[in-house]
UniProtKB/TrEMBL annotation:
SMART domains, A to Z: SpoVT_AbrB (SM00966)
An MF annotation (GO) of this entry: DNA binding
Taxonomic lineage of the native organism: Bacteria, Bacillati, Actinomycetota, Actinomycetes, Frankiales
This protein's name: MazF family transcriptional regulator
Entry-linked SUPFAM superfamilies: AbrB/MazE/MraZ-like (SSF89447)
Record-annotated membrane-spanning stretches: none
Amino acid sequence: MQKKVVTIGNSAGITISPTELRALGVTPGDILEVTVRAGVLEARAVSRYEDAPMAELMAVINAARTRA
């Protein structure tokens, strides 16, 4: 699929369709890890808990248990 690079303020970007967002498992406002390897742009969803300390993770788990 071809995409056109567009100007966004002083930056540039491409648009991502709702279908493509769902395939990535992201919504507007989520964080993506973006890398370029051998001329290929790669984007992957970053879990909001990826770098969270263990205490925060346990608090999230315990809160989910009490809601069930």
